[in-house]
Amino acid sequence: MKKINVKNIKSKFTFRGFLLGLFFYMITILFGLDVFGYIQQTPSVFTLYKIFPGLWPLSFLPLVTAYIGYIVSNNFSNIIRAQNKHLKQEETRSLTVLEFIDNLRKGNFQDSFSLSESKDKLSESLLRLRDYLIKSKEEQEQRRIEEEQRTWVTQGVAQFGEILRKNDDNIENLSYNIIKYLVEYMRINQAGFYLINRTTNEKHFELTACIAFDRKKFADKRIEWEEGLIGRCALEKETIYLTDIPNNYINITSGLGDANPKSILIVPLKTNDEIYGVIELASFKEFQDFEIEFVEKTAESIALTISAVQNTIRTTKLLKETQSQAERMSQQEEELRQNLEEMQATQEESDRREIEMKGILEAIDHAAISSEFETDGTLISVNENFLKTYQYNLEEIEGQNLKIFFFKDNVSELDQILADLQNGHNFKGRVKRRTKMGDEIYLLTTYTPVIDHEGEIIKILSLENDITEQVKMEETLKESKDELGIKLEEAKKEVMEQFKEVEAIKIRTEKTLEGALDAIITMDKNGKIDFFNEAAEKLWNYQRSEVLGKNIKMLFSESSIEKDDFIAAFVDPEKDKIIGERREVPIKDKFGTEVAVLFLLSEAKVGDDHSYTAFIQNVEVELF
Amino acid sequence: MNFKEYLNELKTHTPYDFSDYSDNSIHRRIQKILKDQDLTLEQLYEKTKVDKQFVEHLVEEITVNTTEFFRDPNIWITLFKKLYPSLKRKGTINIWHVGCSSGQEIYSNLIMLNELGLAGRVNVLATDINQKMVKTSKDGSYRYKFNIPYLEAFNKALSKNPIENVSKIDWEKYFNIDLEDDFMEVKSFLRDIPTIQKHDLVKEPVPAMHKFDVIFCRNVLIYFNTTLQSKIFQLFYDNLNNSGQLILGNHEGITGFFKTKFVKNGPAYTKNKVFHFKY
User: Fold this and answer.
1) Which of A92, A126, A330, A536 is the most exposed place for a label (fewest CB within 10 A)?
2) For residue A571, what are the contacts with CB-CB under 8 A and spacing of at least 6?
3) Does A350 contact B at CB distance below 8 Å?
């Protein structure tokens, strides 16, 4: 719409009003002039005025109409002006609105405050629109941020999932990879992974991995179950987020010095309401909610993974245990079998011995008198032979003591025997016992204690032989022996007498032979020299002590023994000697000199005994 | 082929002579091996001829290695009561464990000797035909849970019947015990004492230059027939010092002519000092 010039309107309208008035004036004048026609006067305006005095005010008509016009136009123009103003206002407003809208479109929300002063509906609704758009934008922004965050979270979770999946069942590596990823992804500075150790009686946390400033740190850290923030987090199973860190709580150290973190996030690793551990993150910035949410989200996966890994480890361990148990069982089975084998072999050995034993026992039972009794003498068992020998019935003997078989005077012997047996000594010897009838019997008895594996005597075994007959015979023998003894003494005396006589004769003979001039030697059948008289001593130059008892060969030289058959026969016990002939033979004396002699041999035979006597004469005649 | 033929072949082709082992026992053992390895006797024979490794394995399977710590505690106590007085007087005590199996007997003995203050004077030889058992003895490593009852049983018996004021033995002194892994190992000061080696009692000469004061041969002879038993008794007789002691298993005893060569002294047999003509 064309801008209507207000001023023009006013002047226009005033002029037009004036013209209109003037027009009406003219017309009136004209009409008035017409009147002259009626009155036959010259039309003059002036007269008109005189005739019509009303023309005077009428002459002001143009002024009036002009004035009216002016007023009207003024009003009009005021209205227009007002309208204009209004329109202008509207225009401005529209412009503002347009600008506003444009700004809104462009997204500048701050520059539209000028409208806030208007109170009209459009403004209000526009303001509302603006607010709505602001909110919308903010929301959009918000959503974008959230979208971004969500994407960040999702991606993070996905990548994280990869890490969890790729684990090699080693908890240390896994925990290290987890916090390394968190540190990088979240761009924080320090993280620690605390695992709950339930293997000992008390639960506690172990720091299994730790990173600070991108470097893996090695720290041997153990935290007790309810200790500190970690403990509290695990106990309450809730995340702890701190922004007001006490000075020495945690140290992020680098080469440039220590620094305190701005915020700490401690998240429990839980799944199904069970805690496996705690992650502690420290950063120089604050943690956003979505970051916390991210960690909490991953915490569950981590917990699950840890649970799975621990299960795997446990299962592997169990499997190994089962395997080694199976091995052990088969070993045990083998051992059992071997035990069984040993028992069987032992049993067989025992059986073999039993058979041997049985044979021996039967023989004993058959041959000897056997009985068994306790260490105090109470009878345990006896065999048939026993009963027969002692003349008792089985019933009479049961439970009796050994002393019933002793004569009253001999009972002390029993005590001595029992004492010895208890000391482990065997008894062997001849004993005298009493039968039921009171007869004396003699037995050759052995008592042997039976000792068990621990060295205790469990019973005494008695084996006896009835030697009563023998004893009786012995006694008879003894008597005969005594008689014989006396007789023998007498005979001995006689023999001694005779012997003395013989000795006397022998001495006389020897003395005779001694005195002979000839050398006389006597030997037995084996060639042993028995007699060597003085003349022989002179001849051979031997003392008799040197030759008596020795062999005859020493008296001759070897060559003569070989060559001379008389000598050969003489010295050889096997050969027949040449008797009763005088022969010349060489003899060898002590100094080796050969001397020729005349040898005469005579023989004396008494039963089997031969004795030879040789008479020897020296042939050499002393030349004086 | 029957068992006897197989054993003869075994004797011919390998250094092992089982032909004088007790029939029933050796048959059962071979039967077990046939069953475990799923072989017939002929197949076993073939394998024996060519595979030396298999033969060693066979020997390990045939031998029966049952043994325990302080087997029959009361017998051990009686044994020590009887042995100790004579051992105390000696400067060196020479001991031979024949068929020592996995070694529990050796260490039981050494523990007791140590408690009585004699461990410094002993010279211990332990032998077994089974190479695997020799190794186990040398290692001295046993399962805790399985063996501790035997040790405890001995302590119980000892408390009722102390030997020279020893009434209880502290096992920690002699074993490194690991409860978690169920394992106990004889400490090295004890393990270093014995010489443990593989030895075939039947075929090889005694692996020592001296005679022995004590020979342990428990539950070994039950697997031999009487001929072989006599041969081994003679071997023991020849290798014991005068008044040396031979200790057999509970159900074993000396048979035949050797009954006079040894004097029973509780659970031990003492070599008789009386001069004997050789039979």
Assistant:
1) A330
2) A527, A551, A552, A553, A556, A561
3) yes
Name residues of chain A where pLDDT drops below 50. Answer: 1
CA distance A94 to B6: 123
pLDDT in tens, A469-520: 888 888 888 888 888 889 889 988 999 999 899 889 888 887 887 888 888 8
Domain ranges of chain B: 3-62, 73-139+192-271
Q: From the centroid of its chain, how far is CA A97?
A: 88
Mark whether A380 and A252 lie in a shared domain. Answer: no
| Contacts made by residues B53-59, CB under 8 angstroms, sequence distance 24+ | B55/B14, B55/B16, B56/B131, B58/B33, B59/B16, B59/B129, B59/B130, B59/B131
Q: Which DSSP category does A440 fall into?
A: E
Give the Cα separation of A147 and A165 in Å (integer).
26
- What's the ipTM? 0.72
- Cα–Cα distance between A277 and A271 in angstroms, integer? 11
Give how far Cα A229 sits from Cα of A22, A194, A238, A279, A287, Å: 105, 12, 11, 11, 17
CATH classification at residue A218: 3.30.450.40
Which among B28, B219, B267 has the least Cβ separation from residue A346? B219
CB contact under 8 A, A341 and B29: yes
Residue-number span of the structural domain to which A87 is assigned: 6-103
Q: Is the predicted pLDDT of residue B135 greater than 70, yes or no?
A: yes
Q: Give the C-alpha separation, A569 to B180, whole Å.
A: 104
Domain count, chain A: 5
Chain A residue with minimum CA distance to B266: A455
Say which residue the tokens 């003895």 belong to: B137
Contact of B173 with B102, CB cutoff 8 Å? no
pLDDT by residue (tens digit) across A196-213? Answer: 887 777 788 888 887 775
The three-class DSSP label of residue A293 is helix
Write the DSSP symbol of residue A552: G
Nearest CB neighbour to B223, from listed A328, A345, A454: A345
Q: A533 and A422, same structural domain?
A: no
Chain B residues bordering chain A (beta-carbon distance below 8 Å) = 22, 24-25, 28-29, 32, 64-66, 74-75, 78, 81-82, 143, 219, 221-223, 226, 249-253, 255, 264, 266-267
For the domain with range B73-139+192-271, which CATH number is right: 3.10.300.10, 3.40.800.20, 2.50.20.10, 3.40.50.150?
3.40.50.150
Q: Are B266 and A346 in contact (CB < 8 Å)?
A: no
* pLDDT tens per residue across span A352-390: 888 888 888 888 888 889 898 888 888 888 888 898 899
Task: Tell me how far apart the alpha carbons of residues A400 and A373 are, in angstroms, rounded to a whole number.
Answer: 10
Whether the per-residue pLDDT at B222 is higher than 70: the answer is yes
Q: How many helices (H) and strands (E) does chain A have?
A: 16, 19
Residue among A502, A501, A512 nearest A522 (CA): A512
**Per the domain annotation, does A126 fall within a domain?**
no
Give CA angle at B160 (B157, B165), nearest 5°.
Answer: 100
Q: Is B220 exposed, middle or buried (0-12, 13-18, 19+ CB in 10 A)?
A: buried
Residue B25 pLDDT > 60: yes
User: Could you tell me how far CA A478 lies from the centroid of its own chain?
Assistant: 84
- Residue-wise pLDDT for B190-214, tens only, equals 999 999 999 998 888 898 889 999 9
Cα separation of B279 and B258, whole Å?
10
Distance, CA of A444 to CA of A427 (rounded, Å)? 11
Q: Which of A568, A588, A570 is nearest to A579 (CA)?
A: A570
Judge if A306 and A196 occupy the same domain: yes
Minimal CA–CA distance to A155: which of A181, A176, A121, A128?
A181
Q: Which residues pair with B260 in a beta bridge?
A: none
